[in-house]
Amino acid sequence: MSKHLPRLVLILAAASVLFPFLALFSAALQPQTELSPGLEWPSDPQWGNFATAWTTAGFGSLLKSSAVIALGVVPIALILATLAGYGLASMRLRVKEPLFAVLMLGMALPYEAIVIPLYYDLRSVGLLNSYWAVILPLIGLLMPFGVYWMRTHFESLPQELTEAAAVDGAGSWRTLTRVLLPTAGPALTTLGLLYFMWSWNQFLLALVLIQNPAMRTAPSGLGKFVQQFGQNIPLLSAGTIIVITPIVLLYLFFQRHFIKGILQGAVK
């Protein structure tokens, strides 16, 4: 029994993850007149629910906005987190630990506490109702976790790597780009996927800082869609699947790198 226990646990874990997706997909194919769809496969799948949800909610422009925001956040946030993590891992300063502690306080800062001051600050500089109104605050809000992640990665590397680079006459920049970054592939991939997912799923900042409904993110558009079709479970399920599909596909494409990065960080 103990021999098959790990396999049984994995099967149960996989079922707990797949079951909600299957239930959601089954509900999306039910007739719109069905107020409480069951879990059985419909005899006449209503594939048109996806087209109706797409056109009614305007998911084309919403998905584009989510992609623009995510692709704007991820590269800049990765570069800044890598540089800051490398600096905090290699610097020899008395204020390094207090500086890192202050930075980590940002991980406990909720979005709700800063969204109103952000609104007035961005309005004063003319960035309100633009993609930058969400991209710039998100980069700042995601920095604490990213810096912590990259600092942990750089500190876990053998010190002999940097010492050998210093002996060869390499400066800090060359040591980072030529020696350390080639080892950071899994860590950067995992952090990039997390950044993309958090940016894509951004709801509150997009809702408050962007007044144009067509420029908001897909989750914020889905929130309005829920208000409009709160009783239409099949249509809501179809809209939810449209919003989460890009994230699921991205994870499936990078899952090996993602899992490798997670396990690498756990082992270290």
TrEMBL record:
Q: Where is the ABC transmembrane type-1 domain?
A: 63-254
- Spell out the subcellular localization from the entry: Cell membrane
Q: What keywords does the record list, in alphabetical order?
A: Cell membrane, Membrane, Transmembrane, Transmembrane helix, Transport
Record's bilayer topology term: Multi-pass membrane protein
The cross-references to Pfam families, in alphabetical order and at most eight, read: BPD_transp_1 (PF00528)
Membrane-spanning intervals of the chain: 67-88, 100-119, 131-150, 179-198, 233-254
Family per record:
Belongs to the binding-protein-dependent transport system permease family.
Which SUPFAM superfamilies does the UniProt entry name for this protein?
A: MetI-like
Question: InterPro entries this protein is in?
Answer: MetI-like, MetI-like_sf
Q: Which PANTHER family match?
A: ABC TRANSPORTER PERMEASE PROTEIN MG189-RELATED (PTHR43744:SF12), ABC TRANSPORTER PERMEASE PROTEIN MG189-RELATED-RELATED (PTHR43744)
Protein name as it appears in the record: Carbohydrate ABC transporter permease
